[in-house]
């Protein structure tokens, strides 16, 4: 079974990759590194699987998809301390105030390694 959430992320990732390759003579992709926030609720195995289904063609034939997990970041609304965590934090461990969510639910394309065709 294919997870819908991961499939839609894989599609938008493919879209982002294709956009970033526009105008470049890329023959083959070697490695794509993405970063997934720990609160993005992404099953990384499902994401790789979905991506392998949709990323067809010679350009993707030897590509490796690297998925790195990134901790979410929260900031205390009163003492401004920033804390990174894999889980949702609601209270500051220093002063007990509420925490504000800063980042950690995104999927970022970090690096593309590609083989470029000789011009
Ligand atoms: Zn605090």
**Spatial order of the strands forming the largest sheet:** 2-1-6
Give the uncertain stretches in residue-range form: none
What is the H/E string?
HEHEEEEE
Chain-averaged pLDDT: 93
Quick overview of this protein structure:
This protein has 119 residues and is an alpha+beta fold. It is built from 2 helices and 6 strands.
From the structure above, extract its key features.
2 helices, 119 residues, 24% helix, binds zinc ion, hypothetical protein PF0899 fold, three-stranded antiparallel beta sheet
Describe, in plain words, how this protein is organized in 3D.
This protein is an alpha+beta fold and 119 residues long. The protein has a domain at 4-71 and 104-116: hypothetical protein PF0899 fold, CATH 3.30.2320.50. It contains two helices and six strands. It has a three-stranded mixed sheet with strand order 2-1-6, with helices on one face. Strands 4-3-5 form a three-stranded antiparallel sheet, with no helix packed on it. Helix 2 (44-54) links the parallel strand 1 (26-37) and strand 2. Helix 1 (4-21) packs across helix 2. It is elongated and about 60 Å long. The relative contact order is 0.27. Residues 76, 78-79, 81, 92, 94-95, 97 line the site of zinc ion (ZN). Zinc ion binds at residues 76, 78-79, 81, 92, 94-95, 97.
Secondary structure layout:
Blueprint: H1 4-21, E1 26-37, H2 44-54, E2 64-70, E3 72-76, E4 82-85, E5 99-103, E6 107-116
Parallel strand pairs: 1-2
Antiparallel strand pairs: 1-6, 3-4, 3-5
Helix pairs in contact: 1-2
Bound molecules: zinc ion (ZN).
Residues 76, 78-79, 81, 92, 94-95, 97 line the site of zinc ion.
């Amino acid at each position: 079974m294919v997870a819908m959430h991961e499939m839609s992320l894989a599609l938008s990732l493919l879209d982002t990759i294709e956009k970033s390759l526009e105008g470049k003579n890329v023959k083959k992709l070697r490695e794509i590194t993405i970063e997934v926030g720990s609160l993005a609720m992404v099953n990384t195995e499902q994401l790789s699987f979905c991506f392998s289904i949709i990323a067809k063609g010679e350009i993707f034939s030897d590509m490796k998809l690297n998925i790195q997990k990134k901790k979410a970041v929260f900031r205390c609304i009163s003492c401004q301390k920033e804390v990174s965590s894999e889980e949702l934090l609601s209270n500051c461990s220093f002063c007990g105030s509420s925490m504000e969510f800063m980042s950690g639910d995104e999927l970022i394309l970090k690096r593309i390694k590609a083989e470029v065709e000789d011009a």
